[in-house]
Amino acid sequence: MQSPLARPNPAAKSLSLRRVCAVAVLLTVGMAGLSALILISPHPVRVIPLGGTNAGAGASGTSIGGTLLGGRSVGSVPADFWSLVAQTASRQGFLTNPDVGQFVNASPFGWFRYGQQNDQCNISSNQMYGDNGQVVSGCGFDLSSFKDWCASRAAGCHTFLDLPGENNNSVEDAVIAKWIVHTVGFQPDYWSIGNEPQLWKHYGKPWGQWATTDHRAPTPLAYAFDVKAAIAAVKKVDPGAKFIGIQADCECSPTWFKAIVQVNGPNLSAIAYHTYPSTYLQTSETLAQYYAPLASTSNITTSYATVRADIAGKCGGCATLPIFVGEFNSGPGWSPSNWGGSYANAVFLAASTIQALEARVAMLSIFNLQTYSTTSYGYSLMNGSSALAPPGVLYTSVLRHLVGGTIETAPIKTTLGNVWALREVNGLKESLFVVNANLGHPLSLSLGTILPLLIPATSYSWGPGQSTPTAASGLSSSSVKVPSQGILLLNLALPVAAPNSTFNVSSIAGAAEVPVQLQPSSAGAPEGQVFAALSPVAVALARGRATPAATP
């Protein structure tokens, strides 16, 4: 599969209401401090079924029921997970275009694969070579401006850079690495040697000797030993350097993965592959063909498992060697689908994110940040005029609200196909993230006893026909509705018991005394941390796991 990194233009590459008899505990936080209103009433109160109906086209069709089941923990969200192929429309885009930085800062991305066409670029002299061996332009990226932008971020940057590999010159790699680290003053977290070596055609030739008639590619073993030589050379000028063994063009490269870890295993911090899931393998496809890879062996769950199996037992640390997805988007890969940059692309990326987190993918690098075109998006999250595509909106308006922490699978019992979900639990907060990539039917999802009822919650719901997601706050209910091609993130402030502020509530007909406890929270606390906390008895009642005794 031809990676878009090999070319300069990636574009070529009313709420329904549920009535219940309950105790509603409402908290409001002012700038000066905490105030609480406790409403105790035997009369029905309104509970917003967060993530309810959408007015968009996806709400059409007969709703299909589903039930959220208990899942299993698969560990914490990987520290390196949120990654972006950070190509911009101009070589100094991070520093000169404030919209670029604002977008990234409003997203969950903290890792950046920076640079483009690095195999053809001598960054130390700012010269880009063409296939004919001639200098055709300056390099398409600028490390000094990227470094300055990173320094302006409170969180800084985690970065990995490709050194040239196609010309097979480890001495040259060391010279470039030394210039980057000691002259520019930029230290990447990882280096990799070249991009997609399976597709090279000038292997082993100096840039000035390249010819359009070349058909020289390395064998997997030759590339593995070239990486070994480059690692040794670069470590002499950057002793603490860490290396990604390969940026493979796809998961379909088992001999390459085996060779790289067998030769370089102890010197590698990770390996990476690129995947653009597709089953139709055409750029013009129907919406059904576009979504089909999510539920096929082309999806990221299967590709990651394939690469993990390829390296199993091939080196001493292979069992735990991180596997990065160095480029990811919808297929077919050599060019964007006609659905690239659309709302459907956002649905595809949302579902794939769930699959990647559940599969324990160590890093998911989305291709890519910005296209050169001012009128189209292609694979990119924003265009050359800095307008966000729906996939860009996905990251700033939905995915950044995931609470992180521990990942829990969220199996859903339903006859509806192409539905994906997970939970994340982080201290006193929990996220339920659901994507319904089914074309014909909304999902009516019962939360059963998996999530607590009647606690403060915020939902972010999105369906086709909506330009942006809708955010709503209220008390959690027993069910949610996700439209066809819909995305729902439900964040809950988990109830906890507190030793103070106990109130006896006995005014509800048929209810025993239920202590309602308030967990104070300071003004300006992060989302989801200001809430009414119920005692264990109240939680059991809300979950339906306890039956209140009859009032004498």
In the CATH hierarchy, what is the superfamily of the largest domain? Glycosidases
Number of structurally distinct domains: 2
> Largest sheet, order of strands side by side?
7-8-12-13-14-15-16-17
What is the CA-based Rg, rounded? 26 Å
Helix content: 10-25%
How large a portion of the residues is in β-strands, by DSSP E?
25-35%
> Can you count the beta strands?
29
So what's the overall shape?
A: globular
Rounded mean pLDDT score: 84
What gap, in angstroms, lies between the N and C termini?
Answer: 74 Å
CATH class of the largest domain: Alpha Beta
CATH topology grouping of the largest domain: TIM Barrel
Structural class: alpha/beta
Number of helices: 11
Q: What does the largest sheet look like?
A: 8 strands, parallel, barrel
Q: Do you know the CATH architecture of the largest domain?
A: Alpha-Beta Barrel
Low-confidence stretches: 1-59, 499-552
